[in-house]
Fold Serine/threonine protein kinase.
Amino acid sequence: MLLPAAAIRKLRERFGYVEINKATKIESGTGRDQTSTKTSFAGYQKRVGKANVKKAMNAETSTIYRDELANIVFVKQGGKIALKNTPANWELIGKGRSAYVFKIIGEQRAIKVFYPPFEHLAMEEARNYEKAAGISFFPRLYEAGEGYLVMDFIRGKTFFDCLAEGVAITRDHVAQVDKALELARRAGLNPSDIHLHNLLLTETGAVRLIDIARFSQKKQCTQWQDLKRGYERHYGQYYFPKRVPKWLMRIVAYFYQLRKRLNGKQ
Ligand SMILES: Nc1ncnc2c1ncn2[C@@H]1O[C@H](COP(=O)(O)OP(=O)(O)O)[C@@H](O)[C@H]1O
Ligand SMILES: [Mg+2]
């Protein structure tokens, strides 16, 4: 079915939201300069009201990242949670449905800071990482605290970016995910929420799994089985595009989630 140009534009607007790198750029003018951040943020705070503003952490917690964490501020913006500043020696590398993730510059570590109301997931995810400790497919956890986790930084691309950029996802990569999930199950976890943004491929072809907060849920999750079936049926076929547009992947994900929700209600 051919969609008219106007409909395609609408879909792009709905599903093609700002990329993280562009967002970093917008923020970096203020984010890397503490003084101007404070001034401009004060004005912003006045406009949006304090009730909408939440610090990532209260200043009493003891960690070497205390100052940075205490300076992170989240603001509610049109129903979404926006990050208002990036600490000077941190680089924003990702955002998901519960957290912003930064690379600590000069270290091979990433810090995941959960925004409200998901702060409680930090401890849940930390417990899961403890169970997965020693399994090389998962990053090592160094520290966990109120609303944040410090783990290995994985230099690589998400499967989502691989598809968008035309980087091949091979049968071996898929088999590595299967192996990681099998080992996680053996460690007493229940793998859930396995989607393209939570699978990373390194430059050496190693697969890493992140975002395992939901690995302790009771419900069985079929997301990986569904993804794998899609891969086996369509990936590499003559009609499968070399690069898949991001907005198209977001539409597919949207309808997949919608169908799951509707089936769940029946
Ligand atoms: N350890 C890490 N190393 C490199 N990138 C990461 C790491 N953890 C998260 N990311 C990036 O940040 C994004 C969001 O992280 P994630 O843990 O999935 O957050 P959420 O729970 O909000 O979905 C990921 O999709 C990935 O791009
Ligand atoms: Mg995620």
In short: The chain has two domains: 17-119, 156-265. Confidence is low (pLDDT under 50) at residues 16-51.
